[in-house]
Design a protein that fits this description.
By secondary structure, the protein is of the alpha/beta class. It has 2 domains: 176 residues, 3-Layer(aba) Sandwich (Rossmann fold), CATH 3.40.50; 60 residues.
């Protein structure tokens, strides 16, 4: 089930305006070029920002997300007809044969249930062609990023076309081992409505993520740094073995 910040129509409609800086996607765009990618499955595509950037570059894109409200926003954007949108998740996909599967931003960490995470990795594996890659990012738990998540550090005011002035911020609600739950609050000044959305992220150790990838059949080709958060995240590049090359796996 998607969090309200993605699934509530009113929140999905303002999501992009409240998070306009998507410089984090630049590293993924560079990897698309580096790997010579022509077909991409974007898991947790949300409002379609990354999927549409790829489509503009001539990449064949499938975007999947369980939040229908976010997909409705994506489908309403210019160029949306060039992307195949799927309402669902990576555990139940039609047959695909893509070069790259991506999970940008918080997507990987938002899959907190171990069974759901393993099923997502299996779905990504099945969607890839032999030799294709899975790329996702996850915060290094040793950096304890959640300790800086507070209203004081996250408060924003945005004047959004069609919505008016919206205040937003988030606070940590609970830390339970690797699980961190935070609450996002949105105040719509136009009518005084206050909406909240609770989200939980799983902070995986590097070794834990590598073991989970290996259990599904991937081999880890590399673990990179996130240019937008240097020293604070792991960017995993995992590869599905090629049937044409012996010794991989």
């Amino acid at each position: 089930m998607a969090d309200d910040c993605f699934a509530h129509p009113r929140l999905a409609a303002v999501y992009d305006a409240l998070d306009p800086d998507r410089g984090d996607l630049d590293a993924y765009l560079r990897m698309v070029e580096e790997f010579g990618v022509r077909r991409v499955l974007d898991v947790g595509c949300g409002t379609g920002v990354f999927a549409l950037l790829l489509a503009e570059r001539g990449v064949e894109v499938t975007g999947v997300d369980p939040a229908r409200a976010s997909l409705d926003v994506a489908r309403g954007k210019p160029g949306a007809g060039r992307v195949r949108w799927i309402d669902g998740d990576a555990t139940a996909l039609p047959p695909l044969d893509v070069d790259l599967v991506t999970m940008t931003a918080n997507v990987a960490q938002a899959i907190v249930d171990p069974w759901a995470w393993r099923s997502t990795l299996r779905g990504a594996y099945e969607a890839l062609r032999p030799g294709g890659r899975l790329v996702f990012e996850t915060r290094d738990p040793a950096r304890r990023a959640w300790e800086g998540w507070s209203k004081e550090g996250s408060y924003r005011v945005a004047d959004i076309a069609g919505a008016g002035v919206v205040e937003s911020w988030y606070d940590v609600v609970e830390v339970d081992g690797p699980l961190v739950t935070f609450r996002s609050t949105y105040v719509f000044r136009a009518d005084g409505a206050v909406l909240t959305s609770d989200s939980t992220l799983r902070f995986r150790e590097r070794g834990e993520a590598e073991a989970e990838l290996g259990a599904v059949g991937f081999f880890v080709e590399g673990v990179r740094d996130a240019p937008d958060r240097p020293g604070r995240e792991f960017v995993f590049v995992a590869r599905k073995p090629s049937r044409l090359v012996s010794g991989e796996g």
